[in-house]
Amino acid sequence: MLPRLICSVLLLACSAPAWAGGFTLTSFGGRRCGMLSNLGRPDEPTALIHNPAGLADQAGTQLYFFLSPTFLSLDMDMQALDPQRFPEINPAGCGTQGQPACPWPIDDAGYYTRKIRPERYFGVLPYVGASTDLGFIDRRARDVVVALSVHAPNFYGAYFPAEAPSAYNFIGGMFLMTGATVGAGWRINRFVSIGASLSYHYMYISMSQKLSVVDLVRPQLAQLAQLAIGDIRLDYEGTDHGVGWGAGMLLTPLPWLNIGLGYSGASSPHFVGDVHLTSLSKYATDEEALRDLARDLGYKLPRQLTVQMTIPPALAAGVNVAIGPRVEIGVDIRFWLYNLYKRQVITPGYDPDDKGEEPITEEGLSRDKDYHLSYQLTVGAMVRPWRSMQQLELMAGVGYDQSPIPDETLSLDNPSLSQAKLTTGLRWQIDARWRVSATYMLVIYLPVDVRNSRTHPPTNVRGAGLSHSPAVAVTCRF
């Protein structure tokens, strides 16, 4: 009976991990990935998501394909967790005379000597789209261009070692947002064009985390619970769907000057999905056995979680200057209003047919975020170096992204760091029908040193990283 009692008390004390905020990636298209600055002259079908007003200047019918994978390198040093609350990291007495070495030795500064790195990581940005002007309906409608795309502005995941100290913050997970977007651009006159888009998105999130029994139960039961139960793993999968929208304007006050303006609306996904609790205890070898133990004591455990995320409204502006027929310079700035994201609400869902008290509450699961404004500033150039080959364009760009996450609420499920970006690429109009581009983006994740974490357990880490993102795009014009 005593092991069953310990297990039940443990389960009633479980808390959820610090779930990630929502971050939408915008690196679609040859011009965007090659010179980083495209809002002032969005001359590809990906204008649909960057600045739909740019569609108006893309006559004819086009099919467009784009793909960019990401290869990540990330190293972190983690400050040692309290050995009393997380005893399974290093067994008692390890490293002393006559005892085995500690799996995770600690240096004199209080950090684990072993680096923490993702075991697996993936990120990919696919885009397939088409556009056509409406001149085939009526000549007066040729200044209106409509477009459709299927793309995934978020499709990434990471998996850390399940036995590492970081597992108490995050083991692994994936975030997917994919859907369809329709939109149109209209050139009102030679000075102004406008555009708008509407999107439907399907979204999926998965997360897993380890929970220390010592950290969850009352102190007087901690040692006994650790012997009888060991750690617990929490796994969650949730889905949601919804709509989004965007609008843009393109101003051409002078033939060599273009100014782009854009806005995208906010959305607040609420992911609903099953939550699973798994113990290594020989007294409760599967999830239903754990739930039975809880019922014996008059309690019930949640079957689902609803996890709120925030994809904030965004404002964007860009300028493109043509210096003669062979050189273009662009400057873009984008703002994501993450300062609106103060708290993440996580709501447990119980089966109404289960009997017993509901011990895990929304108040206990929800987390303060206190994000701040995020922005991106980019500068880029496009050059047509050979007069005899105006169809070949060389591109380069530099940029800076300011992360919205303060040090106090940084979490490993979304360790968004401020970034410096370097890009290069080329775009080649092969003939009247085909155009291809090949680009490369280097992202430098700027060093972070968190010492005042408010997450549970603390995410006091220092580290930096790099990512490499090659990309290819193909346009076919009819």
Summarize, please.
This protein is mainly β. The chain is 10% helix and 46% strand. It has a single domain (2-477), classed as Porin (Beta Barrel).
List keywords for this structure.
478 residues; mainly beta; 14-stranded antiparallel barrel; two-stranded antiparallel sheet; disordered N terminus; 7 helices; Porin; 46% strand
General description of the model:
The strands form two sheets. This protein has a 14-stranded antiparallel beta barrel. Strands 12-14 form a two-stranded antiparallel ribbon. It has a single domain, classed as Beta Barrel (Porin). The longest helix has 11 residues. By secondary structure, it is mainly β. It is built from seven helices and 19 strands.
The CATH superfamily name is Outer membrane protein transport protein (OMPP1/FadL/TodX)
Bin the helical content.
under 10%
H/I helix tally = 7
Biggest sheet layout: 14 strands, antiparallel, barrel
Q: Determine the CATH topology.
A: Porin
Instruction: Please state roughly what percent of the residues sit in beta strands, choosing from under 5%, 5-15%, 15-25%, 25-35%, 35-45% or over 45%.
Output: over 45%
Oligomer: single chain
The class by helix and strand makeup works out as mainly beta
Number of domains: 1
> What is the CA-CA span between the terminal residues?
76 Å
Strands, total number = 19
**What's the CATH class label?**
Mainly Beta
Please mark out the parts with pLDDT under 50 across 5 or more consecutive residues, or reply none: 1-23
Gyration radius from CA atoms, angstroms: 26 Å
What is the typical, i.e. mean, pLDDT? 87
Order of helices and strands: HHHEEEEEHHEEEHEEEEEHEEEEEE
Tell me what the CATH architecture is.
Beta Barrel
Strand order of the largest sheet: 1-2-3-4-5-6-7-10-11-15-16-17-18-19
